TrEMBL record:
This is Cytidine deaminase. Residues 21-164 form the CMP/dCMP-type deaminase domain. Belongs to the cytidine and deoxycytidylate deaminase family. One of its GO terms (molecular function) is cytidine deaminase activity. Homodimer. Its EC number is 3.5.4.5. It comes from the Bacteria.
Length: 164
């Protein structure tokens, strides 16, 4: 028997002003992205902004549906939009933020497992790290340098990948 331990490292900034201007901007873009959130059921608005290598920014938000499982998280809306039209332009960073009027959010919102798996696929697909900024408005920002460290047991089977 072997015991394995996996360590996850990330940086916590007390507030957005401690970030570099480009990262502050990306967090602000994630806030702007919440404007298009369709969240009449949870009243939980989520915004995501992708910074692409070219400098282009992609905005997305959570899109709920009255048939609940038909909705989609902001992260996957953003990343599938990227995959459908911008996959030749690697995603350098993704900022995610959230807001609800129902209770205060005191720490960053983290992504669901399905979104982490999709983020991991993007990282594999573009063969470069996808940096993640989890931004709590008026609160801390968590910065994770790559998705692999957030999802060490992601599903990925090399034998399923078609040669390109
Ligand atoms: Zn999700």
């Amino acid at each position: 028997m072997k015991q394995h331990d996996i360590k996850v490292s990330f940086k916590e900034y007390d507030n957005i002003t401690e970030l570099k201007p480009a990262d502050q901007n990306l967090c602000a873009e994630a806030v702007n992205a919440m404007a298009t959130s369709h969240s009449p059921y949870s009243k939980f608005r989520v915004g995501a902004a992708l910074q692409l290598q070219s400098g282009k920014i992609i905005h997305a938000s959570n899109q709920e549906n009255v048939a609940y499982p038909s909705g989609l998280c902001a992260e996957r809306v953003a990343l599938f939009h990227w995959g459908a039209g911008h996959a030749d332009d690697p995603v350098v960073s993704m900022a995610v933020t959230a807001h609800t009027d129902d209770f205060p959010l005191l720490k960053p919102v983290t992504s669901c497992g399905a979104c982490l798996q999709v983020m991991a696929e993007v990282e594999k697909r573009q063969n470069s790290p996808l940096r993640v900024l989890l931004y709590c408005i008026d609160g801390p920002v968590w910065v994770i340098n790559d998705v692999k460290s957030m999802m060490p047991f992601m599903f990925f089977e090399e034998r399923l990948v078609q040669p390109v």
